[in-house]
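Look over this record before class:
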Amino acid sequence: MKTRKNISSETARKSFFNSESAGATIVAAVLLLSIIFTVLAVVRIEYVPMWKTDAEQSHMSEVQKDMAELKSTADMVSLFTSSDSNTSAHGFPVTVSFSMGGGEIPILEPSKSSGTLSLNTERCRMIVTPQRSSISNSTEIVDCGGVTYYSNNREYLDQIFRYENGALILSQKDRSLMRQSPSFKIERTTGDNYTVSIHTIKMAGEPDSISSNTDASLRLTGLYTEPVYDSNDSEGIDSFTCTILTQYPDAWVSYINETAKNADLEYDTDYIVDKIGSNTVYFSCLDNGNKNLERLYVSKSVIQAELGAGGSLNNGEVSDSESDEERDETKMELGKWYCFDIFTGTYKGSAMSSGNTNPEMLRDYDKSYSLPTGDYVVLSSSYTSGNYFRKNIEKKGEVLKLNFGFNNYSSINSTSYPINATVRMIYRWSGNKHATRKLTFAETSDEGLNLQKTQYWCLYNKTVSISPTSPENLTLDLEIGTGNGNGTEGEFDIDYLAVRLN
């Protein structure tokens, strides 16, 4: 017979065993969770970055395919504009899609890397100068523009894909490689003769950028194709030089060098190609080589480009509410920068040749450089010039006179005429002593400022009062003079010149 004392003792023993079982369960659960968290931590630290790298690398391959599609589409549009004159009249819009982001890993790392697609934010210019001893040399300039994709990866190495002037370029760190070649051909004909054919492609459109981790699109519309230069239409050709302003000179130098060698041209005998500075490629076919340049042909296709988010782009239609004046490109607008289309000059009383006073030389500047404020500012050494006007003032007491004007505009599109204008000029004087300058814009003079000797580019950015009634009144005259003392000679350069009506 169990007593009350025995029953109490037995109950206590059962409670003790029950509490041990519960504690063991809790400990097991904690250990299991610790193991799970440890495994997840190891996977996230050791394996997720590797998987992320592979996923982003795969996305870079997709982007390269998208850029290759852009090149093939641009080539197709260029072909249509050259073969069918009606194409440019009716327009032939084609949309190319881009996968901007990728590299996500479901559950473990669902976030996407992103990218930036830019149009005409980097400078690309080709300058071709045919040379023949019996005639004066002319310069043909094509501002090519381009499309650039910048990756923003989390693990994989960032890359840049660049389409410019018909070429597809891959840039990684400080090196660039030509992935698909432009239409820049050197071909052997008969004997020791060879021909050079260059088909340039200009991407027209306002500078624009889109950053996204989803999709973006680019619409291309062929405008026209035209011949730029053909030596068969002149008195033949002896040689020529080709200068390319680009952020990816290594890719161009390597491609041109390989193309010339494949045509059996010998370096330093028949041609030279070299990188000058950080953004200039210089190529020259020599006239005293073993091979003879038989023909040089240069053509240009102009393609209108427009960025859009996702796959949607408007059709570019103009609403009925827009007036004809708003669409008339021959009318100047207030608040916009305009580069001169007339450029003449005299030196020592003689007119300068049109090849030396080409207004196209003054239409661009280093847009990656943030221009400071102020009327007269010396720019830092990081400013990079493109193709620019240069004139050597050889002796003391001489005057260089330059004249600029507008010919492509018929009127000023405004209910009231402008009351002032801002003149922006990026220039440099490399003489041993100061030079004098007189600038007159729309009959308003600004004189007396000495051009200081400096190795750096300078910014003239001054607002003057004007009262023009038409673009014909918007003329700019610039006189640069040296003093009468010894050592006053020097070189005067202009990289950019434009005006804005206010």
Residues 85-90, 311-327 have pLDDT under 50 and may be disordered. The radius of gyration is 33 Å. The helical segments are 4-83, 85-90, 249-262, 324-327. Residues 48-312 form one domain.
